[in-house]
Amino acid sequence: MESSVYAFVEDVRGEGAGRVLDRVLGYGCTGLTVAAAYHQARDVTPHGPARVTFRRDGVHFPPGDLFGRLVPPVQPWAKEDPLRTLRPLTRERGAALHAWGVFCHNTTLGLEHPDVTQENCFGDRAAPADLCPSHPDVRAYAVALARSLARYEPDAVVAESLHFGLFGHGYHHERSFAELGGLAEYALGLCFCAHCRRIDGADAARAEAVRLVEDALDGRPWPEADEPPAAIMEFSLARRRTVTTLVAEVAEAVADEGSRLIFIDLTGAAKGYADGLPTGGLAASEAWRIGVDPAAVGSVASGYAVLAYARDAARVAADLAAYRTALGPDRELRAVLRPGFPDTDSAGHLAEKVKAAAGFADAVDYYAYGLTPFHVLERI
Length: 380
Ligand SMILES: [Zn+2]
Ligand SMILES: [Zn+2]
What we know:
The chain is α/β, with parallel strands linked by helices. It has one domain: TIM Barrel, CATH 3.20.20. The protein contains 14 helices and 13 strands. It has helices at 9-15, 17-26, 82-92, 107-112, 136-150, 181-189, 202-217, 230-238, 240-256, 267-272, 294-300, 313-327, 347-358, 374-377; strands at 4-8, 31-38, 41-44, 52-55, 58-59, 96-102, 117-118, 127-131, 156-160, 261-265, 303-307, 332-337, 363-366. The strands form 3 sheets. Strands 1, 2, 5, 6, 9, 10, 11, 12 and 13 form a 9-stranded mixed beta sheet that branches. Strands 3-4 form a two-stranded antiparallel sheet. Helix 12 (313-327) links the parallel strand 11 (303-307) and strand 12. Helix 1 (9-15) crosses helix 2, helix 7 (202-217) packs across helix 8 (230-238) and helix 12 (313-327) runs parallel beside helix 13 (347-358). Residues 118, 132, 134, 191, 193, 195-196 line the site of one zinc ion.
């Protein structure tokens, strides 16, 4: 079975591309998925050149002339062009190379161009990290980024955050001492920028979002329901088309350059990122929260990756089964697992989850090389 390990350019620079590749292939994996366009983070890196690694927004390659108004920030060592180095090294070893990019999530770009970020129901631009997928400049940026990655001739371009963002992660260092509850928090994360207001039902949804959030802020009791009120739900379903058409444009650009697009559906991470204990509905049935219709996106992307961030092997199986049903039998489905904390306790536990995933997925990938201690990576 095909199996790739997600890795950061910092990992590869620190240890050396050949050594990282040999280690990953030694685990029995078939390739590497390298973050060529990434976002801010501060990560504990157990075996990296630093024990704690600070990452910036930006691309790990010289941006060239494909970009229009939104030009990505560039990482300090981009001129070393790591993808260009990795391509022959992976080919020599018969390994796959996937070029991974974070698309609509970039605080540096958002602070520089607030008009392309998500605008909430009150008219605030308060999510600098979330570039709105409805904005034409963001769409042009996504296509240019995808095309840039595809030009390195990877076996696939892997797109993360190619969809709407959620309220909980619109910046870094969010605070709320008001208890919003799930529905109001969801409503406060919706974008109603000029472009999103053209989506069917936007006005009614916006009025309802304002009401929900104000009720929560004023301490009026809110209905505890899994689904938002009808007006917001209708708008949420309608805006999925924005994401599907964007993924289609990106997939076409990638195919044009001779590669193929794998779409990452972040819903599983939204549910299980912190503790590996997702609750409530299966990820596939809640993908609408980030504007994703798995069946429609699956029909335009050539592969579909699901973040199966759950401790329970039965939950992993159930999540993947639901995505398999949505995508149909022929579309490539990939499961991404974390081999250690906070999802997995032992090699046996990981094996159980791999088995559960492989019942429905065509590939199992692992997240992520530099974040995971070697003794845990060895479980792979
Ligand atoms: Zn972020
Ligand atoms: Zn918008």
